[in-house]
Amino acid sequence: MQIKPRQHLLDIWRATARHSFDDGKLVWGDTDGLSSVADAERLLCLLYPATEIPAFRLDQPDTTERDVLRALEGVGSRLEIPPNLVTALTQFMRTHTGPDDSPTFAGGHYFKPADPLGELTYEQSQLGVVDSYSMSVTLCLATLGFLKVYEGTTTRPELRRAVAELREATKTRLTAAMISLLRSFTVNVFDAESEQGRRLIQVIGQRRQSDRAVLQQFSRRFRPLRATIIESLTRGIQVDESIRDESQLFECGWAWGVVQDAPKITDLDVQVPGQPDGIADRLPYVYFTVAALDGIQDLFSERTLTLGLLDADQQKLAEALRLRWELSQQYWSAVARFGADRWPLEDLPWQTTGLRLESEYFSLTVAAILVHDLVRRKATDDDLTRTVAVMERLADRGRITSRMTREDPTIRLHDPGVTMPLAGSERSGGLLQWRMTDFSAHLLKRIVQLAELSRNIGAQDRLLRLAEQAFEHLWNRRIEEGEGAGLWDNVRAVYPEARDARRRLSWSITERVTECLVAARNLYEQQPIRSPELAQLARELLSEATHLFGREQLEASVAADGSRSRAMRSIENRLDHARSLVDDRPATAFALALPVLQELDTLAQARGAAAQEV
Q1: Is-contact 436 418, C-beta < 8 A?
Q2: Which of 159, 180, 412, 477 is most buried (CB neighbours < 10 A)?
Q3: pTM attached to this predicted model
Q4: Cα 124 to chain center, whole Å?
Q5: What is the pLDDT of residues 230-256, one digit of tens each?
Q6: Cβ–Cβ contacts within 10 Å for residue 105, how many?
Q7: Are the CB atoms for 338 and 217 separated by under 8 Å?
Q8: Would the CA dihedral through 592, 593, 598, 599 be positive or negative?
Q9: Nearest-10 Cα torsion for 378, 383, 386, 391
Q10: 72 near 13, Cβ under 8 Å?
């Protein structure tokens, strides 16, 4: 199934507007609104494409395109859509604000009690979580960009007041989300002889070397990164002093929430209310690290910088987050590619060191960090090719490109999903779990990102085919009727034998599919990969065509409006056009040169035939 970003995004917008808006007003529904994560995901389904794709812009009503207006009929008319979005976003900001006027980042019903008979208490549902911090960064930046443009298009006093109120609330929430991300970052140092140390050595050594040899390699490989972390001790990163001992192992990344005893951020010009005490253990999770990286990179996007969306305090926080962003990418990318032969990432499925869990989902999250790092440092062809192979294997093992077998346990990867305990959450009164059900959408997102990065024709072709297969799998999982029609997720639509799978509306999967389509649009906006071999052939064809065209011009001139004269002008224009494309689009230049050569040959034959008749 070919990915058609514009058409498919409009389908999602149409379904979202039909489900979530009534007479232009946002309707939260029965369970939405209990989770700041789900509410942010739902709003991003509309706002993310509207701020990332020029053709989907909603901040300048006079330029909104007709098919966009038809898709958003449920949100309002051309002039009503922007103020209705302002109202919906304001409602979100107010809903997720605490009694002390501080932003809240409640995980809500996304948290699950570890005890099957237990119930989630109100206090537990209000705990902040990294998914919410990261999603809020993306939502707030999209909102600020939307408001910056829309404010200049309206003169109505009540709308300008509403915009000003929303802007202030959004800036406050953005600052609070960035602070929470800083306070959720952690470096975990542990002894090689500890249980966690032995598991890490087992994962990166793959049982092919002695523990001592693996430890020595780890020490050498991570010496520069260890030095950077030690140097960063003065920049707000809390690390045990034992990090200086090279016999100690370590991990860095994001815990599931604000870590216990995390210091409050106080060196800002404007103090943000809140900053609750954390309860999370100092244990990095690859899943939450990926979530944090996805949000933090939006702080450095070209759009954020061009529009000047960050104030002075936020720029200071962004630089602190950038340091942690780079540390985490470098660490997990090096772990994933550790050793000289087979990568640990290629030894599926990945085993977590802190919680003793293993799943293809964790392989995917480590691969996602590797993709982030490959984008950051411009990947080599070898790294890219091996990562493509990992994605192909994950698609196969996840039964996205292969059929489900009888009583296949893989179905649990999609429904009910992969669960992991949140270390430290027992301090809230009972251990909580986090469930991930978006394996297919997460995989598609990383495949499209790799395809956007790749400048290797073979690798990109494999990725595009894989992306089309993954997208078809996901598109077939849309809910066809009833609650959430046109949205996600109906696992049984592609796995009929999954008798226990429930059809349920998932804003998490819907938002990730939306992200994938925006990324696919960016991929298609790029210039196609240039083939040096084809460029050389195109130049040779154009050289011959130019020479033959010059020979034809030696013949006696004819009337300016004659058929031969028109043909010569057409040939000249096409040759000029082909020459202008040969560097960027050699295949197109090649295709344009061939009919020109055929036409020149036809003219030469016709002239020769005429000469024989005379």
Answers
A1: yes
A2: 180
A3: 0.90
A4: 29
A5: 887 656 677 888 999 999 999 999 999
A6: 29
A7: yes
A8: positive
A9: -30
A10: yes
Residue 405 is predicted with a pLDDT of 85
Show the CA angle centred on residue 474, arms to residues 350 and 379, nearest 5°: 50
C-alpha span between 354 and 285 (Å, rounded): 8
Which amino acid does the sequence have at 367?
Answer: A
pLDDT at residue number 267: 81
The phi and psi torsions of 286 (rounded to 5 degrees) equal: -65, -35
Asked if 88 contacts 29 with a C-beta cutoff of 8 angstroms, the reply is no
Positions in the chain short of pLDDT 70: 29-33, 233-236, 378-379, 556-561, 610-614
* Residue in the structure block whose two tokens are 């090279």: 246
* Strand runs labelled E in 389-458: 418-421, 432-436
How do residues 397-413 score in pLDDT, each as one tens digit?
999 999 888 888 899 99
Its sign, for the CA torsion 86, 89, 91, 97, is negative
Residue 284 CA: distances (Å) to CA of 26, 253, 345, 355: 36, 5, 18, 10
Q: Is 210 helix (H, G, I), strand (E, B) or coil?
A: coil
pLDDT at 32: 44
pLDDT at 559: 55
The rounded distance, in Å, linking the Cα atoms of 196 and 7 is 48
Q: How far is CA 132 from the centre of its chain?
A: 15
Would you state the structure tokens that stand for residue 49, as one six-digit string? 């494409």
Q: Please, which residues have CB within 8 angstroms of residue 11's CB and are 6 or more apart in sequence? A: 71, 486
Q: Is 519:449 a contact under the CB 8 Å cutoff?
A: yes
CA gap 379, 390 in Å, rounded: 15
What CA–CA distance (Å, rounded) separates 13 from 394? 30
pLDDT recorded at residue 270: 76
List all residues 6 or more positions away from 489 whose beta carbon is below 8 Å from its beta carbon: 437, 477, 479, 503, 504, 505, 506, 509, 510
Residue 406 tokens, joined: 């009888």
Give the tokens for residue 546.
């130019």
Residue 158 one-letter amino acid:
E
Q: What is the pLDDT of residue 610?
A: 66
- What is the three-class DSSP state of 156? coil
Question: Strand runs (DSSP E) across 379-531, as ranges?
Answer: 418-421, 432-436
| One-letter amino acid of 310 | L
Between strands 25-26 and 21-22, the pairing is: antiparallel
